[in-house]
Amino acid sequence: MTHLPALRLASGGLPVLPLRAGKVPFGNCPACARNACGGRPNMKPPGRCACPLPCRAPYWQRAAAVAYHPGGAGLTVVDLDNEAAITWARATLPPTRTVPPTRGEPWIYRGTMPSANRVRPGVDLKSRMAYARWLSPGTGTMTALPDEARALIVKAPAPARPAPLGLIASEAGGDCPHRPPAYLERGFAMAEERITAADSAVHATVYRAFLAVLSTHGRCGCLTDTHVSRLFAAAQAKGESPRHCTDAWANARTRLGV
User: Fold this and answer.
1) Are strands 123-126 and 116-120 parallel, antiparallel or unpaired?
2) What are the backbone angles phi and psi of residue 234, rounded to the nearest 5°?
3) How far apart, in Å, are the Cα atoms of 139 and each of 10, 118, 204?
4) Cβ burial, residue 210 (10 Å; 0-12/13-18/19+)
5) How far apart are CA 97 and CA 86, in angstroms?
6) What pTM was computed for the model?
7) Which residue in 83, 138, 196, 210 has its CB near the most CB atoms, within 10 A?
């Protein structure tokens, strides 16, 4: 028997998928296993299944529930699992369309973001690379995804720590013997700015910035723990861990032989 609710949703442009018992998606058919068919619509970058078989059709006959891909529909679901989470949302997030289920309450916003579970007690975010169970159209006017929701997955930068002993090329300190002190400061400011402005490939950008500083000042004895800590702080503010900073610094020193 055809799954009529799913057909109605799909005809309206909502990306749907069947769920088996336990609200778990069915696996791919053998022709699509390990992405052999060429991709799935919610991949990054998006791929299209080239398989000519209607491999999901048999699953719909056994589907226990219907799910949909919020990100594929340009939506984000703030899934509130309990009354405490709902109380928090009412005090923090702007009103939007809500779907009263048997437990908790999903809030649906226009706009997409990365998905994440347990961003705070009783709160999950379902958008890109995630699915949400279809319960009903919900009630209320859908509003734009607020910054308060996006901020839930932004990690606070790790506090800057002094560079561990042995990271500086020389422990003598002092002014750069071949350039005025302002040259050293300008070089560090440029390295910090390069790291801070990185939109992608942050780890590679950090490494190149470390390499540039060491290639100019790594042998002249003017680097101190304070200088290195500034670079580490800039890198950690972009999401690099202290360990990644230490490894990048060590790799740059090894490459230059300092």
Assistant:
1) antiparallel
2) -65, -40
3) 20, 25, 47
4) buried
5) 13
6) 0.54
7) 210
34 and 91 Cβ atoms separated by less than 8 Å: no
Identity (one letter) of the amino acid at 187? G
On the 0-12 / 13-18 / 19+ scale of CB atoms within 10 A, 123 is buried
pLDDT digits (tens, 9 = 90+) for 107-132: 999 999 999 999 999 999 999 989 99
- Which residue is associated with the tokens 């740059």? 252
Residue reference for tokens 């995804």: 145
Write the CA distances from 242 to 42, 118, 227, 256, integer angstroms: 33, 25, 15, 21
User: What's at 39, amino acid-wise?
Assistant: G
Side-chain half-sphere exposure of 119, counting CA atoms within 13 A: 23
Question: pLDDT tens digits, residue range 133-144?
Answer: 888 889 999 999
Residues in the chain, how many?
258
